[in-house]
Amino acid sequence: MCRHVAYVGPEEPLGELLVRPPHGLYRQSWAPRRQRYGTVNADGFGVGWYAQGDPVPARYRRAGPVWADLSFADLARVVRTRALLAAVRDATLSGADAEAAAAPFAAGTWLFSHNGAVPGWPGSLAPLVPSLSAEDVLSLEARNDSAFVWALVLARLRAGDDEGRALAETVLEVAAAAPGSRLNLLLTNGDTVIATAWGDTLWYLTRAGGGTVVASEPYDDDPHWREVPDRTLLAANRTDVLLTPLKEPGDAPTSAGAPAPAPAPAPVREPLT
Questions:
Q1: Which ranges are annotated Pro residues under compositional bias (predicted)?
Q2: 21: part of which helix (H) or strand (E)?
């Protein structure tokens, strides 16, 4: 369900990351190569990006397929950015909330996307509603599982958790409440990308010219793409990628309650060749 991509690095036109690559997100809307669930991502799309000197991202979202939006190619050709998060959507429940249900979701400096599905939604996550304030629940942007997962993440961020902990603990909480959930999450603040691989594909590329791409699947055949193991938290900036295993629900928690078993691996640095 869905494909998404995030980037931080040197300033680029949106189209160089989304449209021009032979298997970029634009093409993945109708011909993904590694999508395990669903075949066509035509239930909406969105891109969020950061303009020079402005920490608050802009968004462009639509309810229909990206290939049907005649303005998107022009927008992607001329708008440049140092960071973006974009997604094409294959809805779990079609027709729900139209454009409002399309990622990326946003708050302050953050952009967020969810690739996956929560089985039994909405009943399976009803026990987690008390962890949110009444205002949070009433402010949900859409009535879907992704918007609710974003509300859980955002509540943790606003409570002071760093991005990695907020994503990891949300994934573990949702997976415990709804076993079998697929929870590949992407979060950026314009300087870093945090992601989880949980039930679906996730790849990253440290580009030779600078910058890091994190995506549901490679947008080209560059041999430097690396697949992220399932049940992993990824943290990336423009040059480095750190991968940390996530504990399964039911495993003994660490003393701090964080989902990081065993020694944390060293940052993975791709050769700049």
A1: 260-273
A2: none
CB neighbours of residue 23 within 10 Å: 17
Catalytic residue set: 2
Q: How confident is the model at residue 240 (pLDDT cuts 50, 70, 90)?
A: very high
Secondary structure of the chain: what % helix, strand, coil (to 5)?
25, 25, 50
Residue owning tokens 């239930």: 43
Could you give the count of Cα atoms lying within 13 Å of 158 in the half-sphere of its Cβ?
11
Residue type at position 260: A
Full-prediction pTM beyond 0.85?
A: yes
Q: For the segment 2-30, what is each residue's pLDDT rounded down to a tens digit?
A: 889 999 999 999 999 999 999 988 888 87
What domains can be seen in the chain, in order of their start residue?
3-245 (3.60.20.10)
Cα angle vertex 157, ends 185, 81, to 5°? Answer: 60
